[in-house]
Amino acid sequence: MSNWYYGGNPHTRRSAISQNSLLRRRKRRKMAADTEKEEAQNLQIEFEWILHEEVHAVLKQLHTILVECARRFPVPLYDNEGKKQDKFVLTVPQEQLKCVVTLTGDAITHADISFKVQRQQQSHQNQRTSINQDSPWKLQQVQDAANHLQQAINHIDNVDENYTFKTSDEVLHVLSNILNALSRGRSSLVIPKKKSIDELMKSRNMKSLSPNLPEDLAISFYLQSHKLIFAVYQLTNIQGTMKFDTYQGECSVPWLNDVLVLFTVSLQLCQQLKDKISVFSQYKDFTVGSRSASALSY
Known about the structure:
about 300 residues; alpha+beta; six-stranded antiparallel sheet
């Protein structure tokens, strides 16, 4: 009677509890496996949607932005006739330097240049020179940036709009090519190549000046971000040690600002898609058509 009151034999009760616990663990494992399988299937579906739909949509959007960027360039590029002409005035305070330039395409086709340099006994001397259209000053940065932009557009044009990507590696290869071309193009405008004073003085562009400058002087024109910069370099010999002083003026170039904005937007858009695709690249066998949970094996 006592055993019936307490629910039967204690050993039987413990055995029943163990079986129930085992059943619950099995049920949890099955639920976890089902959840993992469902997550794998959902990832596979999302992966295929990205490859079939989003990649081509982003490439089309990128192409539109880059063609618009090409239209802003003042040189022939992707059906853009180029040869846009702008006039700028570069000055510094106290009229130490003044330069009026005409920028046509990727060259300075005309410039009236005047600046003051210090000579012996603290005196200043005015220097004047000019550039004419018969011997223009080449801005290689513009052409370099245009070439890299054209490469980026070509990488997109080489992808058939009806092509079906099958792996993340395929997409990452295309996106890496586009990103590299865009990065080089933007850097061409933002980060001018450094040159020694000797390279500047022996530059082919120095032959564009009329009249020529004295041997201790050199000038340069270059782009840095959205600005055109004119710099004067003066060499001085102080007790056998050669030093140089620099004076520079600058002005903002509207089309450069537009181009850099479009470069930046394109880089961000391309990088965002690459980051999204990279999430799937960690799964070794994740390809179009796979529906099994084994696709998630690392």
